[in-house]
Amino acid sequence: MTKSVGDEIIRIIAEQAMVDEREIKPDTSLEDLGLDSLAQVEVVFGIEESFDISIPYNANDPSESEFELSTVKAVTDAVAKLIEEKDPA
Amino acid sequence: MTAARRVVVTGMGVVSALGTGYAAHSEGLREGRCGIKPITRFDPERLMVKIAGEAAQFEGEDHFDRSQMALLDRVSQMALVAAAEAFDQSGLEVDEATAPRVATILGSAMGGLTTQDQNYYIVYHEMKNRVHPFIVPRLMNNAPVSQISMKHGLMGPAYVVSTACSSGNHAIGQAFHLVRSGAVDAAVTGGAEAILCFGGMKAWEGLRVMSKEACRPFSKTRNGMVLGEGSAVLILEELEHAKARGADILGEIAGFGMTADAGDIVQPSQAGAARAVRGALNDGAMNPDEIGYINAHGTATAMNDRVEAAVIHEVLGNHAEKILVSSTKSMHGHAIGAAGALEAVATVMALREGIVPPTVNHEEDDPDIRLDVVPNTAREADPRAALSNSFAFGGLNAVLAMRRWDGA
Description:
heterodimer; A: 89 residues; mainly alpha; 3 helices; B: 408 residues; alpha/beta; two-stranded antiparallel sheet; 13 helices; 15 strands
């Protein structure tokens, strides 16, 4: 499950950053990919649509958000947690 | 060479979250009353953000009959009520001879959004194949301007200005230019916005810049903007024209500055906003040390407030920390295309009454701001001149410079 979540997140981020998926590693930061705050909002939206979850993200002050959007791994872990909370196994 | 024509305010009318009418709006500003509350005019259940500055007590049915209502979106209803009050106060009479010398220029970012929202629901969700015949004349962006022009017989230049959050200031600036240049003798101007419908809120939620709790401009704890709605209409007149008919002069529009950042679609630019503030001061032939009050754009987003404070320090220099700076959006919400107009009314009030409206919901000073933001309680002061800032999405900046009217 987590693997496919990770793959899907990489797909969404790669599409937004306009880079090849293979260039994206777990420790890649969204900022280093050139994703500014507006692009990050689009990534959040893409993830929400793909997994049918609601992400607590405040673009006004991302550092204050409950959702961490620093690296690909942080995003994947947070999304996995949200999916888990939505459909407890 | 004749002296430059001066432009004064002789009437004001308001509908806002603080109430209907100038008396209610200005009383709310003086009391530091917060008009932002849980949404009541539609079901907010599926919204993430459930608060707004609704003009909750404003019902079109109280002002218009059924046949009139068929042609009026809420945005036009509020604009007409504000305009009627402004005309009443000003006593300006328009007849066949003078009508071509009166302009009508309003700001509105999103026009009849509620009408669009309701009718898209009807055709896409309810799958109906027919809508009411007047949907287009209700929803078109110029509807409030056309309705005011028809109601009061105003036959001069008439158009709507749409520059997002700066629409109101751009409209007042355009009206100011027309009166000052001699193209017209008077102008009915301001802004109107009614975006508090389900689809409107959802669109804004998408940007994720709204607070779920409160609008706290300049407070370290601020966490986003809160939408509002309403209309404010001001009657501008050439000074001699106003004097000749013995009008009560409420204040003077002295200068206007407008610029484009040519940068980012949502992030503000310090350089672009600073050029607009400087432009307004230069146009009004004002020195920084004359400014006693600034009605800030003050949206309560982390970014706007930090950049706006930097702009004020940059342009006003050493004088910046002596100026009272408040965001009345903390009380009436961000009424987008009406914001500049509601705030122009607040600025005229501060100059005229010597009471500066506060920035409410202030919890904690932010070291990035370093301004006297008039926290939580209105202040007695004696500003002779003031600025009112608007910095819109899309990088469009518009700043009004105003003076107190001292009878000369």
